Each structure stands twice: as structure tokens, then as C-alpha cells.
Amino acid sequence: MSAGFSNRIVSAAPRVLVVDGSKVVRQLISRVLQAELPAAEVIGCASGAEAQQLLEGGVFDFITIALRLPDMDGLELARYVRESAPQIYVPIVVVSGDVDDRLHRRVLGEHVTDYFDKSLGFQALAEFIRGYVKPESSAEGEVLYVEDSRVVALATRRMLEKYGLTVRHVISAEDALAWLETAHAQDQVGADIVLTDVSLKGELTGGDLLERIRREYGYSKGRLPVLVMTGDENPVNQAALLKAGANDLVEKPIEEKLLITKLLFQLRVARHLRLRDEAV
Predict the structure, then answer these.
(1) Could you tell me the CATH number of the domain that includes residue 205?
(2) Which domain holds residue 173?
(3) What is the pLDDT of residues 141-193, one digit of tens each?
(4) Phi, psi (rounded to 5 degrees) for 202
């Protein structure tokens, strides 16, 4: 199976892509990151076109992009990552000195995960990135878990609860939507993350659930992350799930380390987004 999809996890040696037209800035960011995250593989490139080539050849765990690149706008590259590259929902952070102006005008775009002001210094940037990619052994959060096999659900639920997570288990997409609808009526989301199988009992599949979460409720990947469990190794079908709005995929049968790493990572990204939105 492609390492760009369900087998890829954020490890102790994250791959970071730094896209900036300034060689000095690339070197500064790389130097500070390697000091703070010695195991990280930091790759720099000077243009959007060069970044696109690198993205087509491999998966990254974190991407920083300057707002202004020699050949394109940084937001154009962010859009490419979301729509074209074989990436999971990798955090994309804009690193620039004029972020505040664009943020004020609300033109950073939906494809950017977060922003960082260069005036805060590159040491702060390293700590910022470490907050996204560092491994965690436990976390807090509520998981809406959709699985129709009670045997599988029991084992997976125990696995999740072992790491401190609260699990709301339902057996169908219809039940999951009912839960989300009740929460929505109370101006709540209903969960911090959704974990669903593709094949479910009932008329709706996990893919249908994913589509309704994104389209009908309008929850973005950052607002309500969705992890999809699948036994389908067809990369075309996997890519379709990602393009439909899945944050990431988890191959069945479930491997505990893989699932937990991916799930905690998505919770961490979503938490950063909530803190950012609350600060605005």
C-alpha cells in the first residue's frame, strides 16, 4: 500500500518541508528545527514548482510556506497540497511577516492550517512546529466511533480508552448522524474526532457519513477530524476518501500504534486550530 496513505504515521523523525524563496530564511528555519528536533528530516526548496515535485515524490508531516514565492502565491501552493498531492491532512503553516494583514482581511484561505509571524523569531517557530509533530502517549478528547462489529468495537474502544480518550460508540452511520444532529441543535459539534469504518450496516456507508459531515454540517477537517478505517488497498479508492474530506485513513486490521498515532495527531492539530480561532 502507498506510504502516502494509510501506512504513513507521524514518527519520532518527522519530515518537514520548508518552502521559502529566501535561502537565508530556509537555512535559519532548518538550523533551528534541527537543533530542536534532532531526528527531523528538514527539506528546503525555493519555489512552488520545486515544492510540487517534492510533494509528488513523498509524504511530509509538516509544511511551512512563505506567503510570497518567486513563481506563485503561497496560498496557491497550499491549495495544491490539499487538492492534488497524495497527502493526508498534513498541517500547512504560513510563515510570513504580513500574516496579520491577510488574517485581518480574512484571505488566508481554508487550505492553511495555521499561521506564524516571523517577528516572533525562529526559535518560537521551532517550538510551534514541535507542538504539532511531537509524539504523545496520552490525550483528552471525545471520539465518535462508528463500527458495526461489536467484537471489533469492544477491543478498539478499550484501546482508545487506555490512552485517556472518551469513546461514544454507535453501530451505523445513521446513528452517528443522529448523535451529531442532536449536538448541532444544541450549538455543539458532538465529538472531537470521528473514527468510522467504511463498510457499515444500514443504508449509509462510512463514506456517506463523511460526505454529510463535510457538506451538510459544514465541518472542516480542522473543526471535526474524520479518520476512516478501510480494508480496501486500492489507491484510487483511498484517494477518493481523502478528497471527500477524510483527514487520514487507517488500514484494517487495526494496528494499535498506527491508529493511536494518527488519532492523537489529528486531535493535536484540531486543538491548535481551536486555540487559534479563540485568539482571533
Answers:
(1) 3.40.50.2300
(2) 142-274
(3) 999 999 999 999 999 999 999 999 999 999 999 999 999 999 999 999 999 99
(4) 105, 180
